[in-house]
Amino acid sequence: MTSSSLDLETQLSDLKTNALSAIAQTSDLETLEQLRVQYLGKKGQLSQVLRGMGKLSAEERPRIGSLANEVKEAIQGAIEQRQENLQKSQLEAKLASETLDVTMPGVMRSLGQVHPLNGMIDKMLDIFVGLGYTVAEGYEVETDYYNFEALNTPQDHPARDMQDTFYLPDGNLLRTHTSSVQIRYMEQHEPPLRVIAPGRVYRRDTVDATHSAVFHQLELLAVEEGLRFTDLRGTIKEFLRQMFGDDLQVRFRASYFPFTEPSAEVDVQWQGKWLEVLGCGMVDPNVLKAVGYDPERYTGFAAGLGVERFAMVLHQMDDIRRLYNSDLRFLRQFI
Ligand code: 2NL
């Protein structure tokens, strides 16, 4: 054995001892990687020692070679082992610091609620959809024709009084009822039809506890061969029964509307008093003619109601303005 082979043996054994001790003392993955480069890298300590192998004799070379291999594998193995341990303890530390208490209450979001007016409209739509009606919507700005003319209300009619309507500079107006929606619907469809039109309408009214210049209406319309006043009566009674409850007393009083003939106003017996809740009638033949229907073949019935009035009666409200000024202390009562 030559001195240089002994020398290399010692160097390799020292290298191994130092490396293993340094690896064992490492407490983070970054330093561990630095050690790998330092010992096993291309310019690392092991490569440097192996450079000395050139001086060895042919017999010594394989022995030192396999020794070097052993040292390399030992260091490699130690690094991998350490790496695994460090990764594992890092993960454990992370998990420990991020523990999640799945039994903790969540972050509550307040959901908001349906406004009593919309709640009332929803309830009405549900009832009429149950009776086979289709919901239709239209424009709040209307032409004179769709708001009045087609509804048997010509220019000189008392209901056309300037006082009753908001006119726009271009001659259009803010609709005073949702009947215009139904006129447009009839123009687009052939009987038989059942349609309801809910929506915002405008009247030139002075605002007080029971009047508003902007309010909500719901109108219904049915056109078919052979429809009679009893069909209207049965429909209205069923609607009111579902709104106010079973065993409701309902009264039809003769009345007048330009677009229906005959016409009636309907009262219900409520908390000991007769209360007017809606207007209705058989569609005037002139209205059917205006949309191109043959009034000899088809008859129709229609009704209109103010949604605010129903909300006020059913929720016992004393002032219509409470429905518009968004006071949550008031609105929260109607969940
Ligand atoms: C009321 C009365 C009513 C109608 C609305 C109507 C619609 C068409 C044809 C015929 Cl397209 N009539 N609507 C009929 C009778 C009464 O409303 O007091 N509303 C608040």
UniProtKB/TrEMBL annotation:
GO molecular function, one term: ATP binding
Entry note: cofactor: Binds 2 magnesium ions per tetramer.
Biological process terms in GO annotation: phenylalanyl-tRNA aminoacylation
This protein's UniProt keywords: Aminoacyl-tRNA synthetase, ATP-binding, Coiled coil, Cytoplasm, Ligase, Magnesium, Metal-binding, Nucleotide-binding, Protein biosynthesis
Needed co-factor(s): Mg(2+)
Catalytic activity, EC: 6.1.1.20
The reaction(s) this protein catalyses: tRNA(Phe) + L-phenylalanine + ATP = L-phenylalanyl-tRNA(Phe) + AMP + diphosphate + H(+)
Subcellular location: Cytoplasm
Domain Aminoacyl-transfer RNA synthetases class-II family profile residues, every copy: 174-333
UniProt enzyme class: ligase
GO terms for cellular component: cytoplasm
Coiled coil: 72-99
Residues the record lists as binding Mg(2+): 261
Assembly notes: Tetramer of two alpha and two beta subunits.
Family per record: Belongs to the class-II aminoacyl-tRNA synthetase family. Phe-tRNA synthetase alpha subunit type 1 subfamily.
Name of the protein in question: Phenylalanine--tRNA ligase alpha subunit
